[in-house]
Design brief:
The structure is a single chain. The chain has 384 residues and is mainly alpha-helical. It has a domain at 145-235 and 298-382. The protein is built from 15 helices and 6 strands. It has helices spanning 3-21, 53-56, 66-74, 77-80, 92-95, 97-105, 125-128, 131-134, 164-168, 208-213, 234-239, 242-245, 298-322, 348-359, 367-382; strands at residues 145-147, 157-159, 194-196, 268-269, 279-280, 339-341. The strands form 3 sheets. It has a two-stranded antiparallel sheet with strand order 1-2. Helix 13 runs antiparallel to helix 14, helix 13 (298-322) runs parallel beside helix 15 (367-382) and helix 14 (348-359) packs antiparallel against helix 15. The longest helix is centred in the last third of the chain and has 25 residues, at 298-322. It is globular, with a radius of gyration of 24 Å. The structure holds heme C (5 copies). Residues 83, 86, 90-91, 93-95, 110, 170-172, 174, 204-206, 360 line the site of one heme C.
Length: 384
Amino acid sequence: MKSHSIILIALAACLVSMVVLFGCEGPQGPAGQNADTTYAGTFEGFAPGIKCANCHNPDIDTTYYLWARRYQWERSKHAYGGDLERNGPDCAGCHTTEGLIERWKNHWPMVQTVGAKNNPSPPGCFACHSPHSRGNFTLRDMDAVTIKSFVSGVPDASFNYGPGNMCVRCHQTRTTSPMSPVPNPARTAPTDTISITSSRWYPHYGVQGQMLIGTGGFQFVGYTYRNSIHSTNAGIRGEGCPVCHMASQSYPPDLGTGRGGGHTMKIRYSSDETESDTLFIVTGCNQSDCHGAGGFSKTTLLAAEKPVQDSLQTLETLLIQRGWLTTSLTVNASTSRPLKIAPEAKSGALFNYFFVEHDLSRGIHNTKYAQDLLNSSLQTLRTP
Ligand code: HEC
Ligand code: HEC
Ligand code: HEC
Ligand code: HEC
Ligand code: HEC
């Protein structure tokens, strides 16, 4: 082939893609989920009359700021976390966009049928939104979420915090988690023994929804467990996780210069790649119906985190001393070498260690609940 015909072909290809992307209307597809029946997979079609450039051209898109949002998302752990290879049927539903879409399509079963795919992508725009089929950035689902309880006798929780419900579709316990057996607060007799056989004896990582509500921890009989104002505050009830993590009601794309707030989902962030500094977005904290202007700064936020951090550290030390926790902070158990704890209820201290640690907010989500869980766990370990 002569070089000028290659150039011509390239030009023609260029024109075609420009026609597609630059402002003309897209293919007229029926609206709604799974409308396009020519695709066996999850392709959801294009909304009728959709204008591609409204989103895809930075000079035209002054509504969605897609390019700014994508820049932020690329700096979120959703994008770079690297756990997207967890794409088997048990894991893909939360760790990949493809798995999430499948789970949504099938009304949120935990286990997938076609979860295992090659080249999965991490939770991206099409996980939380369906921009092509809807022509906008509404959230894929806002229904209340049922979170499975992993403490015997405690009912499953219903999480209903507006847009935060979308977060908790993934940031919740896993029904097929290796956690077995489930601890029971009522088993307090010296002969009640629990036999733990997994080094990962916890209900997976995303416990933030339960912590915010004030449920899901191991509540020892005879103690009271309080909740911080975060559980019931109207702004948090209405907006959920985004009110703090995405920084403000209107999610200004330039707050946090693309490295904190917005779609980075970060409250703690750094102004550069080398992490030379530690900054905090406290815009969410300082709204008028919350802590008010100037209510929180980096200093006061860190001070609020300290008591929970200290108690968690003490609990960790005690658990290692007992030999329940290894120095690499996993449960000191395996199938061939079960960890036996009696009375069973004392295992709640180990359970609560992981519950508070995996919440990752250093207590902020629900300081009182976290502190009460830790205090009662410490007290339990200190009494013979
Ligand atoms: C409501 C916003 C919106 C509209 C309108 C829109 N897109 Fe997209 N599109 C997105 C988002 C968000 C992504 C994923 C983020 C990215 O890669 O920039 C995307 C990604 C793409 C991609 C990259 C391939 C991929 O799978 O990620 C192509 C190609 C594309 N869109 C084509 C189109 C075409 C053609 C139209 C018009 C028919 C269109 N888009 C209209 C939001 C939109
Ligand atoms: C599709 C499932 C899914 C949804 C929906 C989701 N997340 Fe995540 N999130 C994850 C996964 C998976 C990770 C860990 C990524 C990794 O390690 O690869 C994560 C990580 C995070 C982290 C970083 C945690 C850390 O260890 O530093 C934050 C913060 C976060 N998510 C907040 C949110 C918020 C806020 C929402 C709702 C606006 C949300 N997520 C919605 C799956 C999801
Ligand atoms: C219900 C949704 C869900 C399912 C199903 C799920 N995960 Fe996760 N997983 C998450 C979320 C959310 C996070 C991030 C939590 C955080 O950092 O706050 C996460 C984090 C992780 C991490 C990172 C932990 C760390 O310390 O950084 C690993 C590893 C992981 N998951 C493995 C798996 C495996 C393996 C499976 C399947 C057997 C699986 N996950 C199934 C939601 C899920
Ligand atoms: C983990 C979930 C999640 C992911 C991934 C995600 N978003 Fe969002 N997005 C949200 C939430 C939550 C909101 C706030 C929605 C609300 O309050 O109704 C939002 C809001 C938006 C808005 C503002 C909507 C409006 O009407 O003002 C845009 C635009 C947007 N997202 C674009 C994107 C783009 C582009 C990507 C991919 C680069 C993306 N989102 C990825 C959760 C997500
Ligand atoms: C009241 C504000 C607020 C609400 C509401 C909130 N968070 Fe947080 N979250 C925080 C703060 C503050 C931290 C700790 C920041 C730090 O010190 O690093 C945090 C930490 C986290 C972390 C650890 C990773 C990180 O970036 O620090 C995850 C994951 C997380 N939150 C997810 C969620 C999810 C999911 C929800 C909704 C169920 C939620 N949060 C609701 C304020 C909030």
